[in-house]
Every structure is written in structure tokens, then in C-alpha cells.
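queue> holo job accepted (flavin mononucleotide)
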Amino acid sequence: MELFTAIKERRAIKHFDNQVIIPETDFTQIMESVLLSPTSYNIQHWRFVRVKEAQLKQRIKEAAWGQQQIEDASELIILCANNQAWNDRPERYWANADENTQNILVPMLQDFYRDKPQMQRDESMRSCGMAAQTLMLSAKALNYDTCPMIGFDHTTVADIIKLPKDHLVGMIVVIGKAAKAAHGRGGQLALSEVLMDNTF
Ligand SMILES: Cc1cc2nc3c(=O)[nH]c(=O)nc-3n(C[C@H](O)[C@H](O)[C@H](O)COP(=O)(O)O)c2cc1C
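queue> job finished
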């Protein structure tokens, strides 16, 4: 599917066909596309938990106030972030660069995030957001539907997936085939309201 069509056709789907199995090749294509999303200094904070076990899905659904798409969608991905990725062997993020570039960028990125917990967290969430949008558009390009979700108890979900210390839960994205189309769009703000020239 062409990109602008995928952008228009992606919707947050609430009702999924629970019989659909996504072929592993499609799933891998989607996730490998996600890895090409941009991140600050190429830090790639994201860590993805693919929840397959029905019992775990059930517990996550309970933590999400019974939202049925958790159970019915074909894939359930919890987008997490390593909040300390900026300091976790950062030379890996520039492994393919020449030595000169590595010597500049690696200390630079560490200096940028050191002792700035709010910035570290913001960056983790930005990376998750970037990944989520690539995931949803890649899935749509392959004719799958998705729903991004934040409506769940984070502490409980973190417990269920054994989230490591220093990691954060960003959001959930489920993937599958819609059993029911989304409602009409809620209403987009006008471009003239949200786009300004030069300053607010
Ligand atoms: C970060 C985020 C969290 C969301 N959480 C939920 C959720 O928990 N449950 C749900 O049904 N929809 C959720 N949505 C879907 C939004 O309601 C939906 O994206 C929005 O209304 C715009 O509709 P559209 O995505 O179909 O264009 C979420 C969307 C985002 C981006």
C-alpha cells in the first residue's frame, strides 16, 4: 500500500477478528521496519515485548479495564524503553561509523543525557512514539489494522512482563484484522490552528 493511503487508512481499531494469524514473515517485516525509525543519537531505546501466552494476555486485558482488542488482535506488542540506553554500551549505536565519528558522537551523547532524568525519560518516550508510528504504518501497508493503547495500569503490566529496573512501559500496540471498522474520525484540528510561521 502506498504511504499516503496507509496514513489515511490507519485507524485505531477496537474490534478484531480473533481467528487471524499473522504470518511470521509479515510480522518480521513490520518489526524490522520499526528498527529503522529515527532516535536521538541513534540510541534506539525501544525494547518490544511480544505477548503470545493467552494467560498473560488475559491478565493484561484485566489491567486494561477489559479492552477486548488485547485478547482478539493477532499480536500484542508492549513498547518499552530502556531508560538508561544512553549509558548502556553506547558505542553500539555508532558501530558502523568511522573511528573519528565514534570518538566524537559517543561521549557527546553521554554528556547530553547525563544527570538529566527528565530528558532521559522524554527521550525514551519519544523513541517509543517513533517506533509506534512506524509499526502502525508498516502494518497498514501490509493491510493489517492496529490500535495504539495507553489505557492500562502501567504498574500491573510492568509486573506481568517482568519489566527490568530502569526500563519504562511506553504503550501497547495490537495488530490484526478489523472485524468492525472504526467510527468516523473524531475531528482533526485545522492546519491553520496548529501550524504557525516562525513563532507562536
Ligand atoms: C498514545 C495513545 C494511546 C491510546 N490509547 C487507547 C486505548 O487505550 N484504547 C483505545 O481504544 N484507543 C486508544 N487510542 C486510540 C485513540 O483514541 C485514537 O488514535 C484517536 O482517537 C484517533 O483516532 P484514529 O487513530 O482512528 O485516527 C490511543 C492512541 C494513542 C496515540
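queue> DSSP finds eight helices and six strands in the chain.
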